[in-house]
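User:
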Amino acid sequence: MEEKGAQINDSELNSEVGKTVESAEKKPGRKRKRISFSALIASMPMMLVAVGLFVICVGYSILLSFTKSRSFPRFNWIGLDQYERLWNTERWLVSVENMFIYGVLFVVICLVSGFVMAVFLDQKVRFESGFRTLFLYPYAMSLVVTGLVWQWMMEPSLGIQNVIQKLGWAGFEFAPLVDPEIAIYGVLVAAVWQASGLVMVLMLAGLRGIDMDIWKASRVDGISTWRTYLFIILPMMRPVIVTSLVLLAVGVVRVYDLIVAQTGGGPGIATEMPAKFVIDHITVRNNVGLGMAAATMMLLPVLAVIGPWIYREYVSPRKRS
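Assistant: Predicted structure:
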């Protein structure tokens, strides 16, 4: 009888434990559903705005690229004629070439310089807050102001060249904006000066998030500092690097105000960019169809950069889970 009572007590205890485990498993599920539903309700206005202002407008722009619209939209379909005309336009070809040169150099230099500045500040230097403010200050300025400042600095009769020549170096020349062959590099200097501070802040946040045990272990193993940064720290900062890359790449595609303020697209068409081409054809040249075709082509590199990032950050983790 005592053995039967013990068995009954054990079975009752097991059943109670099973019910407790089941209830514990069910409760988080209900909680997650409730949180997910609340998040959906909270994000609904932004989703409606995003769909209404971005998705529909992008679709409408693509639709107009297949029409012969001039000053106002006209739905007289001409197929791919606007795209054929676009890729036979010298100004568009120059702007695409400039965007490629400017984009590659801009992204690489900003990433390298931002990381170097972050490493410098991560050494616990004196007046760190002052240096951080100094490095980040250019990013607080608008691209219009940045363009005007560097236009004056690169002006032969007013800027750096004039100052250096007055100091005694009569043969010194620094006027890239007046030479069509190197004008795009003058724009690049201004853009890097303005954007490197943002990359520095992101990289510094990534470095400060590295566990100090990593550094201690590398010192114990006798790994040099530069190898630690290159082969250990940088791979651990991959999310920060990807975020910086996406922000810089999108900035390359939509660069407009810097060009208008600094060069106006000149000399000639030496510093033309796709964004300026699009806006000029829609607002000045009254050719909405060609402008929308160019805008559609600009969308492709943005999707090429953001698409894999969205898939990796949001779609792939859900499939793995």
